Amino acid sequence: xxxxxxxxxxxxxxxxxxxxxxxxxxxxxxxxxxxxxxxxxxxxxxxxxxxxxxxxxxxxxxxxxxxxxxxxxxxxxxxxxxxxxxxxxxxxxxxxxxxxxxxxxxxxxxxxxxxxxxxxxxxxxxxxxxxxxxxxxxxxxxxxxxxxxxxxxxxxxxxxxxxxxxxxxxxxxxxxxxxxxxxxxxx
Length: 187
Ligand SMILES: [Zn+2]
Hints:
The protein has helices at 20-26, 71-98, 133-136, 162-171; strands spanning 105-109, 115-116, 122-123, 140-144. The chain is of the alpha+beta class. It folds into two domains: 8-147, 3-Layer(aba) Sandwich (Alkaline Phosphatase, subunit A); 149-187, no CATH class.
């Protein structure tokens, strides 16, 4: 399908949502998996990951040399990227809500966190044995339509990226010998 993005969002991750609802409706299969790979809070240029109107927190760091910025400027730019991510997730949920005949879920998970100058560390990518929690404690956000499966009632359980695969298998109703119920977030 042709990309027909219009507006300011097209230069940012909002472009990923172009025609989302239409593309799902145009799909002839009865199960649809959409993977959106955003770059919102991936360093170093946090301040260029969101349209200017999402610049809620000011002043911001505009340098790739993160050490040249104050921690406040860095945190502000990072937080603005979170404001924009929050907006994008809201948009996705609103689109999915319109698809009333579908059982839907949105699973949002990061690949890593970011160090913002704590102990003079920046960005991400330290080996897990040395990495501070800022680099590996990541969000895992799930939204479900009213008619879909429920989450397992274990709100304090620590989830990881390993849960995504098994949960998606279950949600789409696939049977597989590699499926592990322990790594499934759904009931
Ligand atoms: Zn990344």
